Write the structure tokens for this entry.
Amino acid sequence: MRQALPNLISVYPELLMAVGAMVLLLAGVIRKTPSIDRLSRLSVLLLLGTLLVLWLLFFRLEGRVVTFNGLFVMDAFGLFMKTLVLFGSIAAILISGPYLKEKQISNYEYPILIVLATLGMMMMISANDFMSLYLGLELQSLCLYVLAAINRDRQRSSEAGLKYFVLGALSSGLLLYGISLIYGFAGSTSFDALALAFADGAPTGVVVGIVFVVAGLAFKISAVPFHMWTPDVYEGAPTPVAAFFAAAPKVAAMALVLRVLFGSFPELDEVWRQIIVLLSVLSMTLGAFVAIVQTNIKRLMAYSSIGHIGYALIGVAAGTEMGVQGVLIYMAIYMTMTLGAFVCILNMRSRDGMSEQISDLAGLSERDPMMALALAILMFSLAGIPLLAGFFGKLYVFLAAVNAGLYTLAVFGVVTSVVAAYYYVRIVKIMYFDKPVVTFERPESKSLSMVLTITAAVNSPLSFILIGPLVQWAAVAAGALVP
């Protein structure tokens, strides 16, 4: 019993979050008119407490710990990705308050659904078996389906939730079919057992199974051609929900891709690399060119996220420890850029209501110079302009591709980055050089201002201070995944 205890406590953060979510849900049910503000604050405290317990336990356990008969693993890679997911979820709850009040969305389940979705993401990140992987994935997905349609009085929100649900069910079917094929040939769903079983190669049936598994996971990260849900869901879902979708779930899904490919099939990299390269090229191309013609800023951010997933997949395609390190750095920076951009979208509020048209940003530098400056920094960072954080994210994934001999893929990434820079710079041009059209009301929310200030500062030239520790931490996390 004494030997089992250290392994068991590795799941304490997840247990804490699960119990806390149930308590909050019961509190909401028992009280006839629960305060969503109070539940939101309690949810943030729960996520912060989980983060604290996670870090304390990691330093006590030391190294890689596998528990629950090999279903669950705790390591430095999981610590890195869980930390990002928790911060992304906390930010999503903080920025939601003003929007929910304005739209009169008083569903007390809102912050609890985010907590439960985060629990699913943490289970995904620590999955060491296809069974635990699927359990965490579906827990996350079911919560996201409801969040997309949480504004029941708005047709576009209901439509977004329905589209997400139908296509999500399709992707789950693809994933399960791939898992069943792999299980049929290996006789196990454990990542460790699969790595040993296919150390000397794999039959054609397993290769087909890997294709289906990657297709199912590609849906979760919005990689082309499994991206079709993204623009419609981002546009139709409430803006804070779209911000949440673009941040934490993307990080968790990318962690899952890395865990599956490098944990289950490390010796079959020549097989899955071809699929990843194709997904990367298609995603970068579509994200760069289709976003140019968008007039709705939420749809533009959707295509932008598709393109950025393509850049992150360059590091996955490298198939090396340096490639994984590049992906981790990229996803950390991408999350801050995206959250900051969506906070600016939430601040696009006039007397007539929320605005989502890019043209309404005209003359923003005259009406609100600080918001214009923050959005300009975030747009330049998304474009990968040197000295800003986004530049370092792309630099590390491109370097990993070059070191792995994927010169064509790296060059393609640079070219599509130049094309994508057009629509980011265009937004800056509209803010600073076009005449004002709409007057936005000054945001009164301190949480919105705080998140925007932090994300803009992290992506500014001050990123020189933070990039060193981030690179070192990512190196440790990548080393835990790729021994």
